[in-house]
Amino acid sequence: MRRTRTLTVLLALAAGLLAGPPTALAAEPAPRAALAADSYTWQNARIDGGGFVPGIVFNRTEKDLAYARTDIGGAYRWQESSHTWTPLLDHVGWDDWGHTGVVSVASDSVDPDRVYAAVGTYTNDWDPTNGAVLRSGDRGATWRKTDLPFKLGGNMPGRGMGERLAVDPHDNDVLYLGAPSGHGLWRSTDAGVTWAEVTAFPNPGNYAQDPGDTSGYASDNQGITWVTFDESTGSAGTATKTVYVGVADKENAVYRSTDAGATWERLAGQPTGYLAHKGVLDAENGYLYLAYSDTGGPYDGGKGRLYRYATATGAWTDISPVAEADTYFGFSGLTVDRQHPGTVMATAYSSWWPDTQIFRSTDSGGTWTQAWSYTSYPDRENRYTMDVSSSPWLTWGANPAPPEQTPKLGWMTEALEIDPFDSDRMMYGTGATIYGTENLTNWDSGSKFAIEPMVRGLEETAVNDLVSPPSGAPLLSALGDVGGFRHTSLTEVPSMMYTSPNFTTTTSLDFAEENPDVVVRSGNLDAGPHIAFSTDNGANWFGGTDPSGVSGGGTVAAGADGSRFVWSPQGTGVQYTTGFGTAWQASAGIPAGAIVESDRVDPATFYGFKSGKFYVSTDGGATFTASAATGLPAGDSVRFKALPGGEGDVWLAGGAADGPYGLWHSTDGGETFAKLPGVDAADTVGFGKAAPDASYQTLFTSAEIGGVRGIFRSTDEGATWTRVNDDAHQWGWTGAAITGDPRVYGRVYVATNGRGVVYGDTAGGDGGTDPGPGPDPTPTGACEVEYTVTNQWSGGFQADVRLTNTGTSAWNGWSLDWTFPGDQRVTQMWNAEHTRTGTTVTAKNVDWNAGVAPGASVSFGFTGSWSGTNAEPSSFALGDRVCGRT
């Protein structure tokens, strides 16, 4: 369950994040060194969810247009045709990793192509950059950014309140943003390009979850929490007169302006002693509904109320569905059925046990029914059915005693929205998924409504470790909050996370190189062992025994033959054992907290690293000796791995901006290391199948090379590097883990801190050396084109093009022409340059993808506009040669 999202990011910070100023709005990029690059296709190893979804936003004027925000994993747009979510912030790079935390999303009801996101993960110094407002004119396909002079907290306490960002429904150049940390209310009058504080707003808030928290996390003032417009008080092109604002202040929670934000006043007669998590207006009936809790959430909340404010008379009515004495939760999720505004729904977001609760009223809060109720305790009757067969792990493999059930209706249910165009569709966010229904009105007829996950495509997990064994499942993962999964298929959701025991967070994972059926994992658990073993490649598990003092998972390593293990848990020193962890003994010669790994050939050899020193054991972990290696990173921001099949062959990545930082290689078991030239900074290292005709395994790293941050591949032992991701696929911070696939050349698995496990496959498939840039003559020989529209919306679309050399000679430059059959226009293209004459488009290689070997492919993508129809081009030509179609 979702207890805290801070641990993984704290580990990330400990791994040496680069601090630097955010990119200025529309700034020209600095010149970068020319790098070889390969065209990769990227997708997620499917989990379907896994993280907290604190906000869901439907557009009020266009059917089926909706967005979801996550606390650390970016924002998404709903695709009605496929009932999936499309990620929108994968372009966020390493230096701006905090901008993957989304504090609010706003969809423009005047111009539905416009969408805004307020981004920033932490308001304390964990996040090195300030927050920003991102704005898009193509529904999130592309973005422009305005940096703010303060931080935002997408993963801070109170993040389920909102929405803090709002677009004026009459003058859509006007936006408001509620800021945390005492920075007040902010406004833009030029569609989000520039922002200024609303100095007339009187109250920046004063509530903090824990004022005594010295880290600055729980002690931050949660600030301005939501903005709601009364659309009945304006007309098209004129700023809305009446605006309501929620403030994190238990005595003064709601303010109003009746002159378009010029002046503000506290609403008279309002309840006190609570925070208003949401304020939702029914302009048709003249009611402002408010959901109150005694804390800011999303985990806590012991008391709550629901109120209705009559906007015409100023009358307040307590419409709470239960007496205050009977609440042990706060209210947060709040929505109105726009087709039938008298219908209101709310959630008991902090009712963890036995389940969350959802309330529904069809008479403006006069009377209520609830999603489940007791018949004769502990038995309960549900108004709903739940089908989680698409995400079966949502049962957690549990078999709880009544009144608890599995799967649970939810927890941390702060997002709740009825589709404004469809009274039967409702979605709500939980700590692990988005649930929804498409027959909600069955609730009112007395029959059951059907709930199922509506989360496919939304992947939000924080990844701590990854392994890809040479046999068995292609991927095993160690994840925050949901433990981890064994993927036997990357395109299907696993049936269950690791259980027996079920760690809340798995911190480390390893397998025996010569016996991949033997797997070990370590992790965090409130009560129970912190280590577990499997003898069937991670399909089934059993817990080990903790040595005294263990408080957390730390890192763990399996001997090459699976006969012994070395464990460096939190709370005590490094330990070793033979067999499966029934009797641990303290290792000598290595400090507590060291990172441990195993040699992949010699089962008696293990390695460790701590504070700039590399340690070696040749007796199964009983004793370690510090090697003579010098010049390694001084801190503990290090990941290192031993090469499969190469005894004593060790690669070490890590460092920090104020000291040694890069990639090191040892061929003598860590006695000496050589730093690779040209690698400015590296944070992970992993191995995959060797390229055809190569004798050494493929290397992968998340690094900065040639002044460029990215995911890199080397097929020649680190002599040269090829970037395999692009600027559209960066995923924020990728410093926890990386591994290739020992069975598929070119495939790489990348750990992200909020976007799950992403994996890439080369489009080329030739396995040879990446050709360098050269002249760009028109290539000759056969060609083939695959043209795919990946997203489409009213007036816009996104497409991918894959061009394959089906001839017998290499291309050293290419230029592809096509003509759109309608009025389509390319608005932006990546991985290629383009020119346009009327409806005819020419896409030409850039420096790094000019060379295409026979049988290899190159891919590029673009966004475009259209009206009428969006038919595909009928033909593509490479010079005077027409390409085949796939």
Automatic annotation (TrEMBL):
<feature type="region of interest" description="Disordered">
    <location>
        <begin position="761"/>
        <end position="780"/>
    </location>
</feature>
<dbReference type="Pfam" id="PF00553">
    <property type="entry name" value="CBM_2"/>
</dbReference>
<keyword id="KW-0119">Carbohydrate metabolism</keyword>
<keyword id="KW-0732">Signal</keyword>
<dbReference type="InterPro" id="IPR012291">
    <property type="entry name" value="CBM2_carb-bd_dom_sf"/>
</dbReference>
<dbReference type="InterPro" id="IPR001919">
    <property type="entry name" value="CBD2"/>
</dbReference>
<protein>
    <submittedName>
        <fullName>Cellulose binding domain-containing protein</fullName>
    </submittedName>
</protein>
<keyword id="KW-0624">Polysaccharide degradation</keyword>
<feature type="compositionally biased region" description="Gly residues">
    <location>
        <begin position="762"/>
        <end position="771"/>
    </location>
</feature>
<dbReference type="InterPro" id="IPR052025">
    <property type="entry name" value="Xyloglucanase_GH74"/>
</dbReference>
<keyword id="KW-0326">Glycosidase</keyword>
<feature type="domain" description="CBM2">
    <location>
        <begin position="776"/>
        <end position="886"/>
    </location>
</feature>
<dbReference type="InterPro" id="IPR015943">
    <property type="entry name" value="WD40/YVTN_repeat-like_dom_sf"/>
</dbReference>
<feature type="signal peptide">
    <location>
        <begin position="1"/>
        <end position="26"/>
    </location>
</feature>
<comment type="similarity">
    <text>Belongs to the glycosyl hydrolase 74 family.</text>
</comment>
<dbReference type="InterPro" id="IPR008965">
    <property type="entry name" value="CBM2/CBM3_carb-bd_dom_sf"/>
</dbReference>
<keyword id="KW-0378">Hydrolase</keyword>
